[in-house]
Amino acid sequence: MLSLETPLSNINVFFNFIWQEYICAKISYHTLIRVIPKNNLTDKYSIYRNGKIAYDWGQKLDSVPYSHLSKALENVVSGHAFNQIDKKDFITLHSGALSKSNNGILLLGDSGNGKSTLTLELTANHDWLYLSDEVGLINPNLMIHPFLKTVSCKKTGIVKINDNWETRSFGIDTQVAVPREKHGKPVPLQLIFFVKYSPDAKPEIVPIKKSDALIRLMNAQIGRAKYVATIEQMAEVVKKADAFLLHHNDCTKAAELIDNLIGAS
Fold this sequence. Notes:
With 265 residues, the protein is of the alpha+beta class. It is built from six helices and 19 strands. The strands form four sheets. Strands 8, 9, 10, 11, 12, 13, 17, 18 and 19 form a nine-stranded mixed β-sheet that branches. Strands 1, 2, 3, 4 and 7 form a five-stranded mixed β-sheet that branches. Strands 14-16-15 form a three-stranded antiparallel β-sheet. Strand 9 (96-100) and strand 10 form a beta hairpin. The longest helix has 14 residues, at 69-82. The model has no long low-confidence stretch (mean pLDDT 89).
């Protein structure tokens, strides 16, 4: 069970919205998240997890600006769901994941390169099924498994979504709930894309060497050292799936490039 305590009603609404979308193993212990003003300030907040200051990618969440609370809380909730996964059964990557016609793809890229936006564009407008916008789970048989959550978007209006798709905005963040009928099931991994956004980029897909893909994937893993995949395990991934650089300046054009590549394969 995961619960939240906070004096902010809008945080409660936002928390309930994002948490309902996660699908993870049932757990026997209770986790309490608290979001409270820092030293009675109105613009800075502290986030606690079971009585201790929470962390987000190694950063203490003891003085979070009000406008950044939504993203920090999303990451705390994602971390909680991620901790319910038996990591010894999966390679875990910081990536988007989707499927179409039994083709599974991963979208990797640093923050700001449009990974989540492209994931949402493919799901909403190109008939792909949604697996995740943040966590790619690959089992020993090289099947991608879902890590279902709301999709995080820093800017609204870039992706055209149906009016019946639920959204919640708070601070700098907007979360989109992908409808259940657009959720995918485990699917074979086929292609890997390393996404790079630039306003001046020419949209193109460029194949990369297996050795380059191996290094990039090793650096994109999530979790503590004892859970990360070995080079030998990751080498099996790059043997199975071709990898590409995806340069783009527009998520619609990027999605069309991916569709065309899948259609030609």
